[in-house]
Design brief:
The complex is a heterodimer.
Chain A: E1 4-7, E2 10-13, E3 19-25, E4 31-38, E5 42-51, E6 54-57, E7 64-66, E8 76-78, E9 87-95, E10 98-101, E11 105-109
Parallel strand pairs in A: 2-11
Antiparallel strand pairs in A: 1-3, 3-8, 4-5, 4-9, 5-6, 7-8, 9-10, 9-11
Chain B: E1 4-7, E2 10-14, E3 19-25, E4 33-38, E5 45-50, E6 56-59, E7 62-67, E8 72-77, E9 86-92, E10 101-102, E11 106-111
Parallel strand pairs in B: 2-11
Antiparallel strand pairs in B: 1-3, 3-8, 4-5, 4-9, 6-7, 7-8, 9-10, 9-11
The chains are: A mainly beta, B mainly beta.
Chain lengths: ~110, ~110
């Protein structure tokens, strides 16, 4: 099992550009989440999904969109990147009470 | 509003010493309290977790102490080693497939 995979590992964007952060898991977990990690702020929930076709907002959803067409994939879309979205992004899947995190994507918005 | 307050933000401990990280929560609906460990450049991984029906859980050198009446819980790392140097997050969640609330994290450095 590859677990939770994320691509790309690093990305630099210019303000106003759009992009999609990819996340996939091969553990057949229904529950998936996107977090951002910022110094002094911990892990903050952006969006989450309890299964294919079902998504909901987390703590900091503004500027991000998600969709969940399959159990395996949960992409995160930045529609118009802003410098405030410079962060490390983690995707996670969940089984019972345990979260399994991907390796992260470090995003810089200039 | 920070529902899980974690302290300290950074901690330096000598090898062989005890590392202690504290967390406090507000939401009485929380019923599962995990700790995650994150090494640089990696995603967090579950280290140890406790439910509020017990006051302590121990796994090797790692112990969670839980005080339900005070709504506080802490992680103790005994005989701390340089390999324990990482960021530690406490977390809390209510029942079922619910959103996990994380603390802000503690960066632990264990010096030789």
């Amino acid at each position: 099992n590859a677990g939770v995979t994320q691509t790309p590992k690093f990305q630099v964007l210019k303000t106003g550009q759009s992009m999609t952060l990819q996340c996939a898991q091969d553990m057949n977990h229904e529950y998936m989440s996107w977090y951002r990690q910022d110094p002094g702020m911990g892990l903050r929930l952006i969006h989450y999904s309890v299964g294919a076709g079902i998504t909901d907002q987390g703590e900091v959803p503004n500027g991000y969109n998600v969709s969940r067409s399959t159990t395996e994939d949960f992409p995160l879309r930045l529609l118009s990147a802003a410098p405030s979205q410079t962060s490390v992004y983690f995707c996670a899947s969940q089984l019972a009470r345990e979260q399994f995190f991907g390796p992260g994507t470090r995003l810089t918005v200039l | 509003q920070q529902q899980v307050k974690q302290s300290p933000q950074s901690l330096i401990v000598q090898k062989g010493g005890i590392s202690i990280i504290n967390c406090a929560y507000e939401n009485t609906a929380f019923d599962y309290f995990p700790w995650y460990q994150q090494f640089p450049g990696k995603g967090p991984a579950l280290l140890i977790a406790i439910r509020p029906d017990v006051s302590e859980k121990k796994e090797g050198r790692f112990t969670i102490s839980f005080n339900k009446s005070a709504k506080q819980f802490s992680l103790h790392i005994m005989d701390s080693q340089p390999g324990d140097s990482a960021t530690y997050f406490c977390a809390a969640t209510p029942g079922g497939y619910q959103k996990v609330t994380f603390g802000i994290g503690t960066k632990l450095q264990v010096i030789p």
